[in-house]
Amino acid sequence: MNRFVELQNIREQFPAIQQQVYNQSLVYLDNAATTLKPKAVIDRIHHYYSIENSNIHRGVHYLSQQATTAFEQARAYVASYLNAAYPHEVIFTKGATESINLVAHSLGELLMETGDKILITAMEHHSNMVPWQQLCNRKEGELLIAGMNEAGETDLVHYRNLLEQKPKIVALTHVSNSLGTINPVREMIALAHQHQIPVLIDGAQSIVHQPIDVQELDCDFFVFSGHKVYGPMGAGVLYGKTHWLEKMPPYQYGGEMVDQVSYAHTSFNQLPFKFEAGTPNVSAVLGLEAALRFMQQTGIEHIKSYERNLLEEAENELKKIPSMRIIGQAKSKAPVISFLIGNIHPFDLGTLLDKMGIAVRTGHHCAQPVMDAFDIPGTIRASLAMYNNADDIQRFIAAVKKAADMLS
Ligand code: PMP
């Protein structure tokens, strides 16, 4: 297979990658924050607003029916992409954060009693930590944290021990956005299920790099954001097993999620509508479908192995730089590299890289406790996507060396 030709084709699909910043071609390595969008996604959104624009599920007219059909087809496609058992197990939200809040409120209401516990890992993004922490506060409960080792891998012995305390819900990140660690979630889910504990997987950083099969994982919930998987901002997914979603109370109230309403009483709509109050972001959902179709057409296994090669190349080169410290050296890693050089402040290095046309992230990456665990203020993070290439890596490495020389 001629990888170079294939990559050229992929880059052509992403208009934003073609641009120059500060008179240099852009090297975009902030993909864990959000990915660039392929033409297929941009065109899909354009088409919706040019032609189909209409509110869904409530109109008898032609456009409304077209939009409703497209929206429900998107749901069916997402369900098949995830290998969910039924389309109604896919709830559209505005992103991973909203999906987690939905579960924390609704499942929390269903399962948590005063003094109960919730279990997460030490490497969660704030979005998969604060909602559970606040639930524990409301219920006078306790948030249990499974620790990690120096490489940034979850301590599975500690995790097993904490399960013995019978937490009511387990919530785990599949891939850490700050360390790149891939957690062995399949094994962790099976361990939780031995105690009949439901498990939510935060897939915000995993779905863009690897195939996801929710039935194979056997997770009870799986969440992600469209904008981190080449889709638009404003649409995300909550996958949930039917038997949980049916038992869980609604999260938000309003139009669409109701069945019969009187001044005295309301009955609620069936799944998935029970959890989709108000007008959804239709164009973003259609864009998300286009993004997942794009992933599928490109070949998820191919993307995975291509990105692994790039990660290896980048890490090998970075490690040659004096005083380089890579934060997060798990054996199983997604293409996310957090690092520090000597005493150089991440912000200073990131600012110089920016002036050389390299977009990276600096700071705590919405994972302040992770930074505390490593006793650092933050890191510089380079995160890769399918459109990055060997040229990007070379430019990045050269720029890091130059910036480090300037700042040391
Ligand atoms: N979880 C993880 C692991 C993330 O990386 C992010 C985004 N950085 C989120 C959750 C939240 O995603 P969003 O802001 O799109 O809701």
Sheet of most strands: 7 strands, mixed
Under CATH at level 1, the class of the largest domain stands as: Alpha Beta
Task: Identify the CATH architecture of the largest domain.
Answer: 3-Layer(aba) Sandwich
Q: What number of domains?
A: 2
CATH superfamily of the largest domain: Type I PLP-dependent aspartate aminotransferase-like (Major domain)
What would you call the shape?
globular
Number of helices, counting only DSSP H or I runs of 4 residues or more: 14
Percentage of residues in DSSP E strands: 15-25%
Distance between the termini: 43 Å
* Oligomeric description of these chains: single chain
Residue stretches low in confidence (pLDDT < 50, at least 5 long) are none
Order of strands across the main sheet: 4-10-9-8-7-5-6
CATH topology of the largest domain: Aspartate Aminotransferase, domain 2
Radius of gyration: 22 Å
User: Could you tell me which ligands this complex binds, including any ions or cofactors?
Assistant: 4'-deoxy-4'-aminopyridoxal-5'-phosphate
Report the strand count. Answer: 17
Q: What is the averaged pLDDT score? A: 96
Question: Which structural class should the secondary elements be placed in?
Answer: alpha/beta
The percentage helix is 40-55%
